[in-house]
Amino acid sequence: MLKDQDYFDKVKAWLSAHTISWSNNDLNEIDPTSPPNVFFDQAFLDLGLYGYHIPLTLFTKNIEFLNNNSISFHRTKISHIEGKPQILDLADVIKKVKGSRERGPTQDLAMEHFEWLKATANFFVYRSLLYAEGDKANEPQFYRKRFGFFENQTDSVKLFDLWKDIELELHQKHRNKKTHFDLFDYRTE
Question: Which end of the chain is less packed: N or C, by CB atoms within 10 Å?
Answer without folding.
Answer: C
